[in-house]
From TrEMBL:
One Gene Ontology CC term in the entry: cytosol
Gene Ontology biological process: division septum assembly
Co-factor(s): Mg(2+)
Protein name: Probable GTP-binding protein EngB
UniProt keyword list: Cell cycle, Cell division, GTP-binding, Magnesium, Metal-binding, Nucleotide-binding, Septation
Length: 200
């Protein structure tokens, strides 16, 4: 995928701030620190457009990045951050659930999992929400460079088993360090946008 243009658009704290141009939205969810910002930077080949490791615990903003006047990447707040209060957790839940239920341009969800670890309870909960709202989902097992290649299969299997993943959901092995999986993930993203156009 050739990146001609990539821009940060807005940190939206309420639906009224979401873009209104109806470009398809590809959203990313995952625990804080799992590597979402790094993955966005790798996808769009910018070193630091999506700020890595900034403001952990900001539970209520969706960061919108516009790519090639073609689509938005939408970075959800990271979940599972220990210092977040119960009220903030509830706000996160409300915001995300409303987005998943009502956001028409949302075409694909990337669920980002650290390949080294078993998915957390929050990961399982998020995956179940996605299934409940029938959102097309791609599981991305990132930080692949952190374990030896010989262990990739076993860890991918563990991720799928713990999530009880639908075998039809694609799983992409990724590394923001090496770029592994970048083209494959773009194929999944472009495929999700195209299949939507075929069957309105
Ligand atoms: N080795 C390696 N480190 C990564 C990878 N992705 C993210 N990281 C590191 O993990 C930390 C958290 O990444 P970040 O993108 O800020 O996570 P976020 O909180 O999900 O946005 C940073 O120190 C990144 O450099 C990866 O694929 N490989
Ligand atoms: Mg981040």
């Amino acid at each position: 995928m050739k990146i001609l243009d990539a821009q940060f658009v807005i940190s939206a704290v309420r639906p009224q701030q979401y873009p209104e141009d109806a470009l398809p939205e590809i959203a990313l969810a995952g625990r804080s620190n799992v590597g979402k910002s790094s993955l966005i930077n790798k996808l769009i080949l910018r070193k630091n457009l999506a700020r890595t490791s900034s403001q952990p615990g900001k539970t209520q903003q969706l960061n919108y990045y516009r790519v090639n006047d073609l689509l938005y990447l939408v970075d959800f707040p990271g979940y599972g951050y220990a210092k977040v209060s119960k009220t903030q957790r509830e706000k996160f839940g409300e915001m995300i659930e409303t987005y998943l239920r009502d956001r028409e341009p949302h075409k694909l969800q990337l669920l980002i999992i650290d390949i080294r670890h078993e998915p957390s309870k929050d990961d399982v909960l998020m995956y179940n929400w996605l299934k409940h709202y029938e959102i097309p989902t791609c599981i991305v097992a990132t930080k692949a460079d952190k374990i030896p290649r010989s262990k990739w299969d076993k860890h991918v299997k563990m991720v799928k088993t713990t999530l009880e993943a639908d075998p039809r959901d694609p799983v992409v092995l990724f590394s923001s360090e090496t770029g592994l999986g970048r083209e494959q993930l773009w194929d999944v993203i472009l495929g999700a946008i195209a299949s939507e156009e075929e069957s309105p």
